[in-house]
């Protein structure tokens, strides 16, 4: 009977906690649904720019699974290649083929190169050996010089993700502790204004987020040897802005939580979806309507900026859209934080 009574108490406790019920039953379905759409999307076709390639080769490359973009000048194609709009440039000089790969994504570069080699090789003289065939195909890279590893490719995304994730937890749990211990309630009973409370907490937590963001960026590049082609200060700036978004979001959501466990319950809803849209998985493989969801994810902009800086050596003008987006998220969450604090004070 005592076992039965204890079991019934646990059941009633779960039934009363709707967030726990949602976490237990709905969160796994949400994650599985996202994984279904991510991994069962459309096939990714490499974007190939062609210069001086006969028209019959275009149809053969398209039949092999490539998207062909004819260009009239090499500088124009190289400019788009540097921006990551193309996978490779295929051109000819006499009877020699030249391939210039984008290089920041090793798997995409290998896929594009393999497609080109297989398509060209099928129409080249059959008696050529593989070494002679390699001599007819000049291969070069725009980024990475062909030595980037898979970790170099998705490492910048991980730098942003870990900064975002741990700052989110720090801010949520720490701000919740202020509320549950009564510190925030006593503070709101004083003449202090809401914006002073928000900026005070952000400044206090921000000291540790700055140290964490700096440590993660330095350790990834210097200790782990993550490929770095741009400015370390831009990496640090992006990481700090991403941490600021996580800090403001964590403090905002903590106002709707009553315990540390309820902060954890936000992870499947706030953190996990962003992983799928951060760049760890190829967004081009998703359905177009699903790709648009990435624009509502702060981690998407942070990861895009970090990949651009570290892999392609992009400067501030190249990542300004990502920077503005992160600033907009931060400002929006700060305003929502001040609005959420109204319920802490009796008017």
UniProtKB/TrEMBL annotation:
PROSITE patterns: ABC_TM2. It comes from Cohnella thailandensis. The keyword Transferase does not apply. The chain crosses the membrane at residues 21-39, 154-176, 197-221, 233-256, 263-283, 323-341. Residues 113-344 form the ABC transmembrane type-2 domain. InterPro entries: ABC-2_transporter_component, ABC2_TM, ABC2_TM_bact-type. One of its GO terms (molecular function) is ABC-type transporter activity. The keyword Transmembrane applies. Its main location: membrane. Keywords: Cell membrane, Membrane, Transmembrane, Transmembrane helix, Transport. This is ABC transporter permease. It is found in: Cell membrane. Belongs to the ABC-2 integral membrane protein family. It is a multi-pass membrane protein.
């Amino acid at each position: 009977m005592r076992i039965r009574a204890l079991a019934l108490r646990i059941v009633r406790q779960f039934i009363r906690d709707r967030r726990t019920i949602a976490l237990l039953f709905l969160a796994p379905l949400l994650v599985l649904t996202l994984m279904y759409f991510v991994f069962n999307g459309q096939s990714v076709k490499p974007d190939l720019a062609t210069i001086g390639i006969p028209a019959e080769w275009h149809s053969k490359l398209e039949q092999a699974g490539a998207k062909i973009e004819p260009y009239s000048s090499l500088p124009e194609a190289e400019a788009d290649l540097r921006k990551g709009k193309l996978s490779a440039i295929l051109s000819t000089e006499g009877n020699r083929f030249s391939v210039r790969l984008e290089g920041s994504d090793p798997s995409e570069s290998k896929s594009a190169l393999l497609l080109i080699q297989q398509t060209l090789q099928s129409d080249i003289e059959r008696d050529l050996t593989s070494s002679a065939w390699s001599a007819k195909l000049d291969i070069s890279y725009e980024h990475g010089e062909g030595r980037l590893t898979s970790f170099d490719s998705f490492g910048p995304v991980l730098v942003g993700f870990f900064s975002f994730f741990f700052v989110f937890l720090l801010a949520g749990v720490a701000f919740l502790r202020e509320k549950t211990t009564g510190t925030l309630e006593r503070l709101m009973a004083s003449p202090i204004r809401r914006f002073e409370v928000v900026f005070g907490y952000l400044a206090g937590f921000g000291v540790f987020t700055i140290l964490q963001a700096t440590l993660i960026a330095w350790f990834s590049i210097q200790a782990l040897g993550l490929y770095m082609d741009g400015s370390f200060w831009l990496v640090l700036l992006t990481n700090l802005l991403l941490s600021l978004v996580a800090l403001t979001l964590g403090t905002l959501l903590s106002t709707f939580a009553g315990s540390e466990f309820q902060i954890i319950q936000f992870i499947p809803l706030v953190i996990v979806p962003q992983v799928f849209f951060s760049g760890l998985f190829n967004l081009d493989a998703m359905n177009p309507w699903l790709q648009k969801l990435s624009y509502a994810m702060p981690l998407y902009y942070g990861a895009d900026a970090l990949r651009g800086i570290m892999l392609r050596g992009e400067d501030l003008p190249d990542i300004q859209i990502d920077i503005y987006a992160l600033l907009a998220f931060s400002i929006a969450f700060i305003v929502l934080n001040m609005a959420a604090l109204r319920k802490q004070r009796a008017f």
